[in-house]
Amino acid sequence: MSLSLWFDGRLVPQDQLAAPLTTHAMHYGTAVFEGIRSYATPDGAAVFRLREHLERMRRGADALGIAFDANEAAAATVAVLRANHHRDAYVRPLLWYGTGSLGLDVGPLSRHLMVASVPWAPHLGEKPVRLTVSPMRRNRAAALPPLKLAGSYVNSILAKREAAGRGFDDALFVDDDGLVVECTGVNVFMVKDGAVVAVAHPDALPGITRDTLVELTGATARAVPLDELKEADEVFLAGTSAEVLPVAALDERRFGDAPVATEIRARYLSIVRSGSPAHEHWLTRVPGA
Ligand code: PMP
């Protein structure tokens, strides 16, 4: 049976949908998306921090100049999960410029919203990750705001390809001053002498997992030079699909066991997978999914 998608206000079987080849977003990346997790909890499906994801999407929509109704997208998310009977799933809303012109003036273009859900498969796997410092630079915030604008992901994809070509799992972006930015689809944390530090950088995506972990651990958010990261006791990555993932190595530097990251990962997973009275406000329950 075909999966259902939400497209422009209604649920439609996926195999009945197609986008024209003159879709503006396909030519110029003029779209904004989100990556959201739904978890199978003992009380059914629950979407983690749906409001915060859709608020970030609204900022991307504002940057592109596309009207976006976060309440409609939230209702669509719930409807799609329920229609597909997805509990452990990845939810992908996308808002994009359609047809009407192939010029760079977006005024005449059609605008569309879809929400898809796909059964869950982990993003970087479950094993500790081997990183390499990318020879590429991250998009500068002054050139492309760090939001989930589709076109900005070409930067991530090129860096990831380059790292994979040298046998690594992911690329670490560092700026011209040697400060750590983020990886291609996750934010970076380190642990030194028991203190947890969330790497802060203006060119990094303001991650919702990062925000969650800062709140859970009381981590300090600050700029971190690459040299300091290499001296850390532990380095770990945070993102909606990667969740919390220890880093095994950064180029020639190998990290040992990651007891703090492992403990933080367990706390994170227990909250997303079942909630806790203190964190129930982070979950949107989807009865009937
Ligand atoms: N940085 C980038 C570039 C990303 O694509 C993601 C994934 N959305 C993250 C960081 C982590 O953000 P979040 O925790 O909100 O998924």
UniProtKB/TrEMBL annotation:
Membrane-traversing stretches: none
InterPro entries named in the record: Aminotrans_IV, Aminotransferase-like, BCAT-like_C, BCAT-like_N, Class-IV_PLP-Dep_Aminotrnsfr
One GO molecular-function entry: transaminase activity
UniProt KW keywords: Aminotransferase, Transferase
Gene3D superfamilies listed in its UniProt record: 3.30.470.10, D-amino Acid Aminotransferase, subunit A, domain 2
GO biological process, alphabetically ordered: carboxylic acid biosynthetic process
One Pfam family here: Aminotran_4
PANTHER family, alphabetized: AMINO-ACID AMINOTRANSFERASE, AMINODEOXYCHORISMATE LYASE
Record-stated family: Belongs to the class-IV pyridoxal-phosphate-dependent aminotransferase family.
Protein name: Aminotransferase class IV
